[in-house]
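ok trying this again, last paste got cut off
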Amino acid sequence: MDKTIAQEALELLEPIPAKEWIESNYEEDGLSCALGWYARKKYPKGLKTGQSFYDASLPLRTASEEFIHSKYNLYRDIADVNNDTNTNNYKQKTIKNRVIALLKDMIKAGY
């Protein structure tokens, strides 16, 4: 059985130490946000020619937006959870913990 997008993301992101996560930038000085890490880990040999971090991470961003909207009636996505603590159940102090909690909730909901 194929993995869902959230299962794939959890598998890729969970091993990354919390100190290596940042807000608001896909990549900076070897650190990344959730979407940046997702793209970097999914494509370890580098992005496809002409592909941006945004393009590479769009399926995860879209699935997280659909989940958050269906569960909380908010138009937010994984980037919002990464960057702040204002999305319902995702108020954990570290970026990593907020994102991992979101992914686990997405998995429970079938995403």
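PB: full thing came through this time. The first strand starts at residue 27 and ends at 28.
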